[in-house]
Design a protein that fits this description.
The complex is a heterodimer of chains A (293) and B (671). Chain A is an alpha/beta fold and 293 residues long. Helices cover 40% and strands 10% of the residues of chain A. Chain A has 14 helices and 5 strands. Classes of the chains: A alpha/beta (293), B alpha+beta (671).
Chain lengths: 293, 671
Amino acid sequence: MPATDRAQDRAMSRPRLGVVKFASCDGCQLTLLDLEDELLPITDRVEIVEFAEATSARSSGPYDLLLVEGSISTPEQAHEIVELRRQTAKLVTIGACATAGGIQALRNVADHDAWRAAIYPEPAWIESLATATPIADHVTVDAELRGCPIAPGQLKEFLVASLVGRRPQLPDEAVCMECKRAGRVCVVVASGEACLGPVTRTGCGALCPAYARGCYACFGPRESANVAGLRQGFVAASLLTEAEVDERFAGFTAMAPAFAPSASAAALSYREGAVVRPSTDKAARPEVDDARR
Amino acid sequence: MTTARPTALPASLSPASHPDPDSLEPAFLERADLAALVVALRDDGRAVIGPTVRDGAVILDEITSVDELPVGVRETQAPGHYRLGDGRPDRIFDFTVGPMSPKGWTFPARVPIGTARRTPDGATFSAATPDARPLAFLGVRACELAALDVQDRVLLRGPVADHDYDARRRSALIVSVECTTAATTCFCTSMGTGPEVRDGADLVLTETTAGFVVRTGSERGRDLLARLPVRPATDLERDEAAGGVAEARAAVSANAGVATTGLPGRLGAALDHPRWAEVAERCLTCGNCTLVCPTCFCTSVEQVSDLEGTETTTNRAWASCFSAEFAAVAGGTFRSRPQDRYRQWLTHKFSTWVDQFGTSGCVGCGRCVTWCPVGIDVREELAAIAPPPRQALPVLPIAPSPVPDDAWLRAARVLDSRRETDDVVTMTVAWNDAPRPRPGQFVMIGLPGYPAAPISVSRVHDAAIELTIRAAGPATTALTRLGPGEEVGRRGPLGRGWPVERMVGRDIVIVAGGIGLAPLRPLIDSIAADRLQFGAVRIFLGARTPRDRLFTAELAAWTEAGLLVDETVDRAGADWLGRVGVVTHLFDHSERIPEGTIAAVCGPERMMEATADVLRSRGLTDDRILVTLERHMDCGVGLCGHCQLGRFFVCRDGPVFSLAELGDAFGREGR
């Protein structure tokens, strides 16, 4: 088929794009709006049928492409994602919550009931799961865009590649690669910053090291993430103690499998240290709770 | 991205001529007059790249004035550690090397190499034009000059030269500085690259208390010197300069070094050393060592498409053998384990680099030691893995390969496309104004928006070639969907094919697994066309299932031509009456293989290993067993580095090899 016919075909049948969210802050969805100049040409190519952040139009599917933000945190969400998967040709998770569980997944190693009782006046009214889990724990995921939030460049590349039909270029290599291509000075070596870039997947453009900060792994682990080697290196160079290294992993991608052992160790020692161990004693709760009741 | 080999090297690469006894040299430039040098370089329209302090390090950047150079700065370097501190007051060049090197400008981290556009009636491909702004480097150290020479050997002096590097390198004027201080990570004296500057610079400065002793290394340098406010150096000044460099030499010599004598052979013999697994526990495979290295030249291509998918720019970007994707092909990566990657890097740098380019890939600058975030020191690893000298192994010559005539992709029309199996298509592409591919050669084929893929030529016609393509990923899937009249980008033919002339008069065994039959088909065609020139010819074909068999309509013709064809499938249904089992089982049904037989084998690597074992057990020697290898290929001409295997680039030196050539690179996990 000549290229012109193909182009017309594409124009006539714009793929149906949906954007939905579960437990998350909406920041990744906003990245789509942040594409600004490119957003309108994108809407020429795809039909946005569901996007709460941008339009009140609602669709019940089906979706050719569904961008899913957030982790699964309630029984209702666990049901809903299965239903959405059924209506979707290509399901793409966006952001640290959807791909790794997000910061809220730290509760996976906490005492869920105790926290719930400490925070909510009527814990029985709160229907939440003991865990916050990535979408891929519940349904098959076709692709994932990492980050907290996702990178606009990667979102655009993903959409363009999907429209062209080629494999999106979402390299699975260390943050260091893009950091060095950009001509940045290594903050570990030159400033003694504990940067998690060597074990973290690239895609952000090495944003934090550009501002003389260490990477905090919001894109989650890269392939072959050598967490033990990084810990040993930081301890040997007296940058951090072992426990401090573990704490660095207890962040936005804490429960990503490669980081979970470290992050869990940090979270557990936090509990055991009883620093802010939640109390189930109602009298110990702050005034404001009683006032809200 | 490539051009023919340059006929003359840049002036700065020519050996320094003897100084004219009447000249000023060596000259002396007062420190306050260094500004005149920067002004002169900028007056010539050059971007001056020099040292400056930023982000806690002495980095390189474009400088517009002498005021941007560091003053009284010296650094401390150790494995995984770099800190700025105070140097001798007023000294400009009192530090050694920082994280950056001239590579960042001669071989930038990311450059466009070409653009592909879809047009109403096909596609157009246009190569990028290199950035033509002339450069001047200020403060290049001896080890960095050596690194430029190493990259010249790789990118200019091979069978194919890199167009972009050529343009940038030729433009660059080099003002070198001899080191008068040393870091603990320096080992230039081990590698024979410094601290004294011998050649490769246009102007050489050596800093002293009051200024710089200056000598020239080229005509360009002499012209420049004539424009500077210099006077002849006094004996005292010359002695002070020489003394400073001698102090640096003594300091570097006291550092840990590398025992280079016989190192390539020792490393080559240590491929199974337990230390590889041990260092992999410490190594983060982050790639920092390769990107700070001034000689590492590996790159990957990236596609940047517009939203309509009508225009795609292809960029070349620094890549690293420490990423799994670097050695990936459809179906997996050849170096899945971190220990495979560390071994690849270290053995290439210190061993197989010598086989490929006649020089070590290491210049002893120590960047990989300092800038490793966990402080892995190559000097320690080499001492553990390849301890002191034994006898060096002989260096084998590299096989010549034809030079492609084109700089990048050119458009070619698809004439026909026919389906062979569920996922394999044979496409006929017009082949005009290009050399006729020899059996076993391949071509790079690309579509706008997709990376180009290496595809074996499966038949050669007078003005067309056939390509048999398996839909292994999106790019190859898109190729299998093309119809007559559409256009592809093509480049080639590339690589070294089957040595047909060596097979004349001999008995031949051809063994194919799956799509591996594609590159063997032109060999079969050649034999069938000139049947009487060859002895007995047996063809053993293996496929996964009867539905995966290729070229089934031709098998009868091959038999009629006097070739013995025997087939087997791994799995079969009730409608298959032929043999079932892996392809090596066909040898069990075959008579003795006559002495002198040559075998040509292509298929999955494990299948080729099993076949090689059977052939050896039947008495074939390794020089008579030929295989064709698959590796990740981005450039196809030995410049991007992905397909490096031991002393070979599979694209340029292969893909056809004898097992004798490959040695223990064949069938070893992680190569």
